[in-house]
Design brief:
Blueprint (H helix, E strand, L loop, with lengths): L11 E2 L2 E2 H35 L2 H17 L1 H8 L4 H24 L5 H29 L5 H29 L1 H21 L2 H6 L14 H14 L1 H31 L2 H24 L6 H18 L10 H30 L5 H13 L1 H20 L11 H4 L5 H27 L1
Antiparallel strand pairs: 1-2
Helix pairs in contact: 1-2, 1-5, 1-6, 1-7, 2-5, 3-5, 3-9, 3-14, 4-5, 4-7, 5-14, 6-7, 6-11, 6-13, 10-14, 10-15, 10-17, 11-13, 12-13, 12-17, 15-17
Length: 443
């Protein structure tokens, strides 16, 4: 299913693949930039909440940091198939940096408010979309196909380190130098990323996977976008995988958003920190395992196997309250395992797309893949809370409808309804895996 084009990794420099060097420089630039962005998002959320004392305002800022890049992803993908991808990545860093610099100036002028933050965070989100999507389509032009899973381990490991570092670093900057210091650190991160990229951007652009201009192909942005959609419709295996992962992400989104309410329903913030740390460790363990992976011919089987184990783990969360003294430790182990496995699932899924779609089409096709597969996450976030509060938790409340039946096995009281919902998500994942694997074998 793979499609090879001339790529940077065929060149050698003193016996070392130039593609490897360019990859690690590009990864370093992306992680440095991401660290600054996440620190700013964290600090802005805290500042807005303190200024407004509104959880809604806090949530809207988080929404503004994610939604625009998701909604604009098909447009960004189309541009990535038309113009030099390395250059667009540099422009993405520059645009996001200008947005942060604007926030610095507004804050220094003492005129920063919620609406300014919303505007510049939203615009910066679109530029961050250029960064993430260009990175995604450039990786297979730098790394040989049989090494992609291994290098996904480096990517996921870097992301795990950044995610673990953000809360501590952002809190340190806020306490020591204030919000302005966080902004300045973010601007420095963008400048550093641009400087790194400028060292390799010309070599990347020489063979970035784009097709040579062809007058027989559609040239307008709209027609190219539709071409990407038609490609997916005409490739049933990829379309099936896309819908399958969208369904999986819906269940994973429910699990993710309800984890904090679950822990706090029976424990304290200290234990919540323990669980979240375990999730970060799971990310690092999963990335380390990926680095050790050799290329697999049947990546779909690997994907399904990992998801099957995830489903079993979610079903097992229904019994964590059997021994209250062990509840937090059992949950911590489950969360670590779930995070480790899903890091591997996400990486294998990404490699399937990178090796199945022609490089010259990856901007358009992978952007649609990102939109469709991830749109289920905010949908899950919207309905998970009401489902837990108004349906599943009351079912397992003291004297609730299921107290004398399933309550004997799961327990009765706070959090029991959430773990029952986790079990349902696990069953849905296993059923989805069975249907998808059977369907994929027929194609």
């Amino acid at each position: 299913m793979s499609h090879e084009t001339e790529a940077v990794y065929v060149e050698k420099d003193d016996g070392v693949y130039l593609g490897n060097v360019a990859f690690f420089m590009m990864l370093g630039a992306t992680l440095i930039s991401l660290l600054g962005t996440l620190m700013t998002d964290f600090a802005l959320g805290q500042w807005v909440y303190k200024q407004t004392n509104s959880a809604t305002a806090y949530g809207v800022i988080g929404f503004a940091a994610l939604a625009p890049q998701l909604l604009f992803s098909p447009f960004i993908g189309t541009l990535l198939d038309r113009y030099p991808r390395g250059t667009l990545m540099v422009l993405g860093h520059a645009g996001a940096g200008v947005c942060t610099l604007s926030l610095v100036l507004l804050y220094a002028s003492d005129v920063l408010n919620f609406w300014y933050i919303l505007i510049f965070v939203g615009i910066g989100s679109i530029f961050n979309g250029f960064i993430s999507q260009s990175f995604m389509v450039l990786v297979p032009t730098l790394i040989p196909e049989n090494k992609l899973i291994k290098f996904q381990g480096f990517i996921q490991g870097g992301l795990g380190v950044v995610e673990l570092s953000v809360p501590a670093l952002a809190a340190f900057f806020l306490v020591s130098v204030g919000l302005e210091g966080v902004f300045i650190a973010d601007v420095v991160s963008f400048v550093s990323a641009i400087c790194l990229l400028l060292l390799i951007v010309k070599k990347i652009n020489k063979s970035d996977g784009r097709a040579e201009p062809n007058t027989d192909q559609p040239t307008s942005t709209k027609s190219q976008l539709m071409y990407g959609l038609r490609y997916l419709v005409n490739h049933t295996k990829l379309l099936t995988l896309l819908l399958f992962m969208g369904a999986i992400n819906f269940s994973v989104g429910i699990v993710h958003v309800l984890l904090t309410p679950l822990v706090l329903s029976f424990s304290s913030v200290v234990e919540l920190g323990t669980v979240m740390t375990a999730a970060g460790v799971g990310t690092l363990v999963g990335s380390a395992l990926l680095v050790l992976f050799n290329d697999m011919n049947n990546k779909v089987a690997l994907l399904c196997g990992l998801l099957f184990v995830i489903g079993l783990l979610l079903i097992n969360t229904t019994v964590i309250f059997v021994d209250p003294q062990l509840t937090i430790w059992i949950l911590t182990g489950i969360v670590l395992s779930l995070t480790m496995l899903f890091v591997m699932v996400d990486s294998v899924n990404q490699v399937i797309w990178q090796t199945s779609v022609p490089k010259e089409l990856q901007g358009r096709v992978l952007s649609i893949q990102t939109l469709v597969s991830q749109i289920s996450l905010p949908l899950a976030f919207l309905i998970a809370g009401p489902m837990a509060d108004y349906l599943f938790e009351p079912l397992f409340a003291v004297n609730g409808p299921l107290t004398d039946s399933l309550g004997h096995f799961i327990g009765v009281g706070p959090g029991r309804g959430i773990v029952f919902l986790y079990g349902i998500c696990g069953i849905m994942i296993i059923l989805s895996v069975g249907v998808f694997y059977k369907f994929s074998k027929r194609q």
